Amino acid sequence: MNLDLFDHPDFHPSWREDLCPGAVVLRGAALADDRELLKAIENIAIQVPFQYRATPGGYAMSVAMTNCGDLGWVTDSRGYRYQSTSPETHRLWPAMPDIFRTLAVHAAEEAGFKDFQPDACLINRYQPGAKMSLHQDKDEEDFGQPIVSISLGLPAVFQFGGMERSDKTQRVNLTHGDIVVWGGPARLRYHGILPLKAGEHPLTGQYRFNLTFRKAV
Ligand SMILES: O=C(O)CCC(=O)C(=O)O
């Protein structure tokens, strides 16, 4: 690993909140990079526009998605999966920008997960009313690697539950620049996002963006 590439002097979460063993919110940890992250999202979306996908059961998702990195997460009638190309353009996903990888690796390390090697970054775009139902991230091969999730734009309520869908959930308010990391004993916890409330953010307008980093293979 090239350490220079991963050096990030501005990485200063303002404080950390532990959700449970293996899960932490690093408040404000992406703030110093917010404009660069948003510019990179815009660039990626020009190459591979956001899409509203359908679950294998045929339900339309309210969150629009695109990807960058070696692999992208997609869903359709054939199931949930990672693939190296966009189903729409049939071309490789755009490369993961260095700033994405650097931030994700730093956040994982700060949360206690050394050597995070993300090969997939799902970019979620929420408009008012969009939500993500409680789910587990289990399409990856190695649950030893954590999940790093960056919030930008409008605030959202993150639901963080247990190992069963029916377990009680914590409600965590996520605002612009927050990073959530979960792995180890928390890696398979259910999580989701409640319907986004309308608002206006100075950098993203009526949207919330989320970057979710994972090692898929
Ligand atoms: O938008 C978020 O903060 C969570 C996204 C998420 O849970 C996912 O992409 O699996």
UniProtKB/TrEMBL annotation:
Domain annotation Fe2OG dioxygenase: ranges: 117-217
GO molecular function: broad specificity oxidative DNA demethylase activity; ferrous iron binding; oxidative RNA demethylase activity
Keyword rRNA processing: no
EC number: 1.14.11.33
Cofactor note: Binds 1 Fe(2+) ion per subunit.
Short name of any one Pfam family annotated for the protein: 2OG-FeII_Oxy_2
Record keywords: Dioxygenase, DNA damage, DNA repair, Iron, Metal-binding, Oxidoreductase
Residues that, per the record, bind substrate: 73, 80-82, 139, 165
Keyword Metal-binding: yes
Family: Belongs to the alkB family.
Protein name: Alpha-ketoglutarate-dependent dioxygenase AlkB
